Amino acid sequence: MVTIKDVAKKAGVSISTVSRVINNSKPVSNEIRQRVLKVIKETGYVPNPLARSLVTKKSQLIGVIVPDISDFFMGELLNGIEEVGKIYDYDILLCNSYGEPDEELKYINLLKSKQVAGIIFVSWKMEKRHVEAIESGNIPAVYISKNAKDFDIYSVSIDNFKASYEMTKYLIENGHKKIAFIKSSVQDSIMDSDRFKGYKKALEENNIKLEETLIKEGDSTSESGHYLMNEIFEFKNIPDAVFAANDEVAVGVINCILDNGYKVPEDISVAGFNDIKLASLYRPSLTTIKQPIYDMGAVSIRMIVKMINEEEIGDKNIYLPYKLIERQSVSKK
Amino acid sequence: MVTIKDVAKKAGVSISTVSRVINNSKPVSNEIRQRVLKVIKETGYVPNPLARSLVTKKSQLIGVIVPDISDFFMGELLNGIEEVGKIYDYDILLCNSYGEPDEELKYINLLKSKQVAGIIFVSWKMEKRHVEAIESGNIPAVYISKNAKDFDIYSVSIDNFKASYEMTKYLIENGHKKIAFIKSSVQDSIMDSDRFKGYKKALEENNIKLEETLIKEGDSTSESGHYLMNEIFEFKNIPDAVFAANDEVAVGVINCILDNGYKVPEDISVAGFNDIKLASLYRPSLTTIKQPIYDMGAVSIRMIVKMINEEEIGDKNIYLPYKLIERQSVSKK
DNA sequence: TTGTACGCGTTATCAC
DNA sequence: GTGATAACGCGTACAA
Description:
The structure is a homodimer.
Chain A: H1 4-11, H2 15-23, H3 30-43, H4 49-56, E1 61-66, H5 72-87, E2 91-96, H6 101-113, E3 118-123, H7 128-136, E4 141-145, E5 155-157, H8 160-173, E6 179-184, H9 190-205, E7 215-218, H10 222-234, E8 241-244, H11 247-259, E9 269-271, H12 277-281, E10 288-290, H13 293-308, E11 317-319, E12 323-325
Parallel strand pairs in A: 1-2, 1-3, 3-4, 5-11, 6-7, 6-8, 8-9
Antiparallel strand pairs in A: 10-12
Helix pairs in contact in A: 1-2, 1-3, 5-13, 6-7, 8-9, 10-11
Chain A binds a DNA duplex through residues 1, 3-5, 13-17, 19-20, 23, 25-29, 32, 47-57.
């Protein structure tokens, strides 16, 4: 491996000079600059990021902690993070926490010891100790989590309350009165409450009373959706629409409805949340709330970069626009 | 940040001694060991991985280059890599190449300069220059690619020829004679040939002649599947079954068939390849070849670790077992 | 068994 | 504008 020393020697200058040309840190006479550049090209010299980080105390690594890599949501999010990160020359150190708080904490400390330039923390549900661990490191961080707004931190999300309210209203306006709501309990947090609150408000405004037997909660998998929908069927209190906490759950719900001999959306309508790739692929295609997942990733890392460069950031909590996507899974009036 | 020096001073020993206890590299008297350990605990000292890598020339980082993070396949693969990596204390440096050869090459060099302990290179289609770039670095590497076996390298895959042969045979045995085949051209490589060859052999054995108008190729997205299936429809030479290069394509194919007013599998059967999560979620659920994606990731990183530790590895090319999964998208006799 | 001193490849602080 | 040289935090021959 060719080092700065080799380049210096071959160019007949000191390593300081070489350092200056590669970093543009101080003026160097044009003649020497060209000579050094030439040698660099010839030798194929690449600065050692490790040595560099060791002295500057900064790496070009952004640590990203996610609860589940194979979750459709994370893939798109990571895409956004990666793509924008590349623009600013940052690489991604990926950590899969399996949504376990202890793992999350372990990774936070690991990332700190690796002196990452920033952390993007994606979590189903954050705890105080996580925030404290990150913030104490004095390292730029952005949070993507259902309950991020409980803390005084930088976060990226959408307005879940409003989105949920709109979707519920949409269902009602299209003639649905008996609307089941399925939330994911791993997210028995503010944000789920937000979505639930939006649902509740829409019902209230339309004088529809909440039915306990139509409110279910499980985790955020399709299996869970299938299971919970079955419970609803067993109760014989059949809804004419189901609003699921996320698209995977929604698909599980639809499959269950189909398995029970009903049709979607003719007999029962189903709405999802997130608009992951699956939502448009699945048939019937899912009416859902489109979260700008890719953008959320992109914005997160952009914020980190700004923090690193000490640029001005507006609000600590960024709310991105969402959109109600009408597809086939909800029948229209 | 507390360093090895601080620990040494506080414990009243030299830094070498501290280094020895944390690395177990040389004998240290029990008394001193305990004292050092105690100080480490008290101070919460964590060795700086950067400084460590700088001197040992080895990091605890495994670089993973994938062509598309949001691809369902990659998510599951990364899961396997991450989980096993964690066991051996390796972290994942994630690179998204977008399947572009130049990007791939750039990342390979980046990873080398970061002195990663190993590289897992996932690619739609590898070129000689990629292999050369990696192998010249003398760094452990495992390849997951359609055409990995063209090179003398470590790779993990399944026997695509046999799998494809079996699926085609299965279709034929269930009464299908006009079987379309859709490959993904980004993979116009050996492996696709392998799958294509398997398809061809099965047809030959059953005296079915190959029909050019039923062979299509595009990329590996559902959009591509939809588009190609449309082309087949336009040709008015309707098949009674379609064998798609992968599940996403298969879903696109089915959606197209549905859009054209046909039923799956009653009118046309569709088989996929890979068995990603989507395959069982989608309705009709996909009959497909189950690749052990998670295991492929797990095995890959396990191989890397073995290479790092200079343990014995058996074959250079690992073939994992696959399985034909019967679901709803193919009608049975 | 323990400590000293050097080197890993860079950047940064001085002098010149 | 340029060049020594001290750091960064750690591992490890070499001495003791």
